[in-house]
């Protein structure tokens, strides 16, 4: 049994064909941002506090948009989970809910909005939207999500266009013929094995801030934007009514050499200035990474690739183990830092080198 999140990757590589593994593991260009998302965490050092009686018990519970979680961890939205395991998103949702964690469902899921809701029961769930060119499709998806108990809409704003992903050029990935895209009304049945790049042809190409403002008022659900790296964009997001900002570079899959998310986080926290919740997506592999993200101001983190690797290697049990390992490591890191609850995590835990 793998003992940490990184150890799941080779097991997933064994379980998947080369094209499917390359799709989830790869990044854009020379994959510098992909690697820097991880490396940036290792450049940060913790300064633990002692004699705070943390060995007697840690409470890592958190909240996201007012909803309680057992720990500050959400499953990030990632597409085509049916290509990694037969139960796909249903297995992921059930695993997250069993641990009291949240899940964000992708527009490009292979399991329907309703079936994922059934699998997650009372679990916290958000719906991620790739805005379609047809506004009617967007409205219908959000109506279904709201009726199924999803608590927020996450609009991804850093795609299209599709990043230059060379692994996919060498080993082309396309959706298995038996899988459909049932969240999108017109794509509920399998449709000729589209490639990920081809799915972007359905999406709105002229997305702007006016659309965000319209949807905030139109859908009557908290709206977050995912894919923000610039403090100026974070400020604009707040001005246009969002409830949250997700600092993300799409896992290094879009613009190579873009800033690592943990490096982008402090300036965005400063720009938002408490007016909305801020989350971090990208590069998390250890409980210490979670603590570092919280110390820099994140409300919670979103976890993607390790969940996919656990799903591929072990289905629901694999996802449960991956998430459970991260929760346990986070509790351990909190204890060793002298923090009994998340309210005690602050920037003072991070080393500030003298210049």
Structural descriptors:
single chain, 355 residues, alpha/beta, TIM Barrel, eight-stranded parallel beta barrel, two-stranded antiparallel ribbon, 12% strand
Word description of this protein:
This protein is α/β, with parallel strands linked by helices and 355 residues long. The chain has one domain (5-349): TIM Barrel. The protein is built from 13 helices and ten strands. It has helices at 8-15, 18-25, 32-43, 88-98, 113-120, 135-147, 166-170, 196-199, 209-219, 231-239, 261-272, 287-295, 305-337; strands at residues 62-64, 67-69, 73-75, 102-105, 125-129, 153-156, 223-228, 244-247, 277-281, 300-303. Strand 8 (244-247), helix 11 (261-272) and strand 9 form a beta-alpha-beta unit. Helix 12 crosses helix 13 (305-337).
Radius of gyration: 19 Å
* Model regions low in confidence, pLDDT < 50 over at least 5 residues: none
Q: What is the distance, rounded to the nearest whole angstrom, between the alpha carbons of the first and last residues? A: 44 Å
CATH class: Alpha Beta
Mass-distribution shape: globular
Based on the coordinates given, report the CATH architecture.
Answer: Alpha-Beta Barrel
Contiguous helical run count:
13
Q: Quick one: biggest sheet?
A: 8 strands, parallel, barrel
**Can you tell me the CATH superfamily?**
Aldolase class I
Any idea of the CATH topology? TIM Barrel
Counting helices, strands and paired strands, the structural category is alpha/beta
Query: Could you say how many structural domains there are in total?
Result: 1
The SSE order reads: HHHEEEHEHEHEHHHEHEHEHEH
In what range is the share of β-strand residues?
A: 5-15%
Would you tell me the overall average pLDDT? Answer: 95
Widest β-sheet, arrangement of strands: 3-4-5-6-7-8-9-10
Per DSSP E runs of 2 or more residues, the count of β-strands stands at 10
Share of helical residues: 40-55%
